[in-house]
Design brief:
Elements (H helix, E strand, L loop, with lengths): L2 E10 L7 E11 L4 E6 L5 H5 L10 E6 L2 E3 L11 H4 E4 L12 H11 L4 H14 L16 H13 L5 E5 L7 H16 L5 E6 L2 H7 L2 E6 L2 E6 L1 H5 L2 H6 L6 H9 L12 H12 L6
Parallel strand pairs: 3-8, 3-9, 6-7, 7-8
Antiparallel strand pairs: 1-2, 1-4, 4-5, 9-10
Helix pairs in contact: 3-4, 3-5, 4-5
This protein binds adenosine-5'-triphosphate and magnesium ion (MG).
The site of adenosine-5'-triphosphate (ATP) has 12 residues, from strand 2 and helix 1.
């Protein structure tokens, strides 16, 4: 699904003494099948921006088009409910969204709500549980008896079972150890690759994750997009990132120290790849 924002702005509590302009002048154009990251310092407006994409927030300025739907200031949230079906949202602590008596019912909530029949719902629950690595034996349990990690998987399975075209991932790996965050990101990556039209938009503070799991980055600072491009393009300007109170991944810092010309190339920004690239440069360039 195509997503296009033109001069989008949002002010919390417009017209009240607590008025707070959170984002402004946002232009984005995201084709189907995209892997996007939105990075930015705390309070830069990332969550505010992405909450527009499924109609949780309605812009107070500009326009936003999500698939066939164009959203303008003053539109009622009610008429945007259908967006919740196509744009799934995984919040920072998704396990806080659980509420049903059993894991199965929790995962089934979205498909039930969207009118999938009993058989189709059961099939979706089974597949979503499998996608997130939840054992079938857990389906009859109460989600509140599970471990934190399992609860998070249940919540994500519930979003996947709604069969969204676009997933908004707002710091989905918050609080996980490196192994856990990697497993989670690999899961979203597999989900995206299963269908050519699927997109995700990952909100993260983690530059390594942004580099590895996105093909295009938007960098936010004080409510605006201040840089955009492929990870390699964005990391070419560490000084501008610094102005946005962000840093390039450690791998880029190290390689820039060794090879000031910036002619190195990385795909994953991970330790083993970085080590290979250092070895290549120390041998005087050329292929390994
Ligand atoms: N409900 C609200 N009412 C008023 N102001 C808000 C509200 N939510 C966020 N803000 C303000 O809007 C600005 C952008 O906040 P937002 O949560 O979008 O930033 P963020 O980039 O997601 O930050 P973080 O990385 O901490 O999650 C901040 O100044 C914040 O204080
Ligand atoms: Mg946020």
């Amino acid at each position: 699904m195509q997503i296009k924002a033109q001069n989008l702005g949002f002010t919390y509590g417009e017209g009240t003494p607590f008025e707070k302009k959170a984002v402004s002048g946002i232009d984005v154009d995201i084709p189907p099948g995209s892997r996007i990251a939105v990075v930015g310092h705390t309070g830069s407006g990332k969550s505010t921006l992405v909450q527009h994409l499924n109609g949780l927030l309605v812009p107070t300025e500009g326009t936003l088009t999500v698939g066939e739907t164009t959203i303008r200031p003053g539109m009622k949230q009610k008429v945007l409910h259908h967006l919740r079906r196509t744009v799934g949202m995984v919040f920072q602590y998704p396990e806080h969204q659980l509420f049903e008596e059993t894991v199965e019912k929790d995962i089934a909530f979205a498909p039930n709500n969207f009118g999938a029949g009993e058989k189709e719902t059961a099939e979706r629950v089974r597949r979503a549980a499998e996608a997130v690595g939840l054992d079938e034996s857990l389906l009859s349990r109460s989600p509140f008896e599970l471990s934190g990690g399992q609860m998070r998987r249940v919540a994500i399975a519930g979003v996947l079972a709604g069969h969204p075209d676009v997933l908004i991932l707002d710091e989905p790996a918050a609080g996980l150890d490196p192994k856990g965050r990697r497993a989670m990101m690999e899961m979203f990556s597999r989900w995206q690759q299963e269908q050519p039209f699927r997109s995700y938009i990952l909100v993260t503070h983690h530059m390594e994750d942004a580099a590895k799991y996105a093909d295009y980055l938007y960098v936010m600072n004080a409510g605006s997009i201040v840089m955009e491009g492929t990870p390699a393009e964005v990391f070419q300007s560490p000084a501008r990132l610094k102005e946005a109170r962000l840093d390039v991944p450690a791998a880029v810092r190290i390689l820039t120290e060794i090879d000031g010309s910036g002619s190195f190339s990385l795909n994953t920004y991970e330790a083993d790849e970085t080590a290979d690239e250092i070895a290549r440069i120390l041998r005087g360039g050329g292929p390994l």
